[in-house]
């Protein structure tokens, strides 16, 4: 199993490296120090959340939950999203905590099949989250977001070249040497984009598509920050490439001061939808506290906090989104899809084939 270095080892959206890091530190400060041994809960007044590096929640939202529940939340962050699942599997006989947040749909079935989760359907789960359900209640959908190619509007306007729209467009000669993406063996956005191409071209066609991208000068880097903040010409990037793999929410952070336009955009015909889940860990020391924490993650208070802190869409579609998201951070109307079971069955072989095709 490859350890996938997810967007959390490098910020997944513009600003998340700082915000996510601050949020994680704030959570640790509010929650106290995790036991350095196993990281498991020490008593029934403590619930331990195992999550990825960039989990973030507002101090006041967390404090209210702790006050109302009588629980103290401690955090264990064993690494990025891929490392998270690997660690849960390796420690399933002595779990790292009580609750997990951050398993996404590219790893969900592995976690379920390995038996690291205990079934639980939380109180207050929104009807809109049901479409993302996996595993008969073992995993609860918390947030969603689209991985998409982003475009630097100003670069294309200056160059007098029309912006690409589709995946096929990216292979055309006029876009030679303009695209930077991340490696699916080291980046969760990279894995999502690989899955987008599998969904678009099928088992018999996706490798040929990547061969065309390679011939057209696609650049591959290890992580999101390298692609978006170094090689990308848009946003805060100072690079030479006006097309970069990022998220559909990224353009919300390049909006003009008057709020009327954004200097970047997401190509919504190139997207793969990620869903992040939470669940009660099998063998949790505090299973009742774990259920209360999962209830909190689907509550209106936490769901309303998701967009500003983790730059994802809440799974509860009734939650009011930040101003400008509808215009500048829309989800794709038709993202490419790959069934979770197919991802589980073929993920490693797809990454290996991609590496052979693109890296050599």
TrEMBL record:
InterPro entries: ThiB-like. One of its GO terms (biological process) is thiamine transport. GO terms for cellular component: outer membrane-bounded periplasmic space. Pfam families: SBP_bac_6. GO terms for molecular function: thiamine binding; thiamine pyrophosphate binding. Keywords: Signal. Residues 1-31 form the signal peptide. This is Thiamine ABC transporter substrate-binding protein. The lineage of its organism: Bacteria, Bacillati, Actinomycetota, Actinomycetes, Micrococcales.
């Amino acid at each position: 199993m490859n350890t996938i270095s997810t967007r959390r080892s490098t910020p997944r959206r513009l600003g998340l490296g700082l915000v996510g890091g601050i949020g994680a530190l704030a959570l640790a400060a509010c929650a106290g120090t995790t036991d350095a041994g196993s990281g498991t809960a020490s008593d029934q007044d403590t619930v331990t959340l195992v999550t990825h590096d960039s989990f973030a929640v507002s101090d006041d939202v967390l404090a209210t939950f702790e006050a109302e529940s009588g629980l103290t939340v401690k955090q264990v962050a064993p690494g990025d999203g891929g490392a998270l699942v690997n660690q849960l599997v390796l420690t399933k006989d002595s779990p790292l905590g009580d609750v997990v947040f951050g398993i996404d749909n590219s790893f969900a079935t592995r976690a379920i099949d390995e038996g690291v989760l205990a079934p639980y359907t939380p109180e207050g789960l929104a009807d809109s989250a049901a479409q993302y359900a996996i595993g008969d209640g073992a995993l609860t959908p918390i947030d969603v977001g689209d991985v998409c190619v982003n475009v630097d509007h100003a670069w294309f306007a200056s160059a007098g070249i029309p912006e690409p729209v589709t995946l096929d467009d990216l292979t055309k000669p006029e876009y030679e040497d303009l695209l930077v993406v991340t490696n699916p063996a080291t980046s969760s956005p990279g894995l999502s984009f690989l899955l987008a191409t599998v969904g678009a071209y099928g088992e018999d066609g996706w490798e040929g598509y990547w061969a065309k991208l390679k011939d057209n000068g696609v650049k591959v880097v290890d992580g999101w920050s390298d692609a978006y903040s170094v090689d990308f010409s848009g946003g805060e990037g100072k690079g030479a490439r006006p097309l970069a793999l990022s998220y559909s929410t990224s353009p919300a952070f390049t909006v003009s001061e008057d709020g009327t336009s954004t200097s970047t955009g997401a190509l919504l015909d190139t997207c793969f939808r990620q869903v992040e889940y939470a669940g009660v860990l099998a063998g949790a020391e505090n299973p009742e506290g774990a259920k209360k924490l999962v209830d909190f993650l689907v509550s209106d208070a936490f769901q309303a906090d998701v967009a500003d802190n983790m730059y994802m869409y809440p799974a509860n579609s009734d939650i009011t989104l930040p101003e400008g998201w509808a215009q500048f951070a829309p989800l794709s109307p038709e993202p490419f899809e790959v069934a979770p079971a197919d991802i589980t069955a073929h993920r490693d072989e797809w990454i290996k084939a991609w590496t052979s095709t693109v890296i050599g």
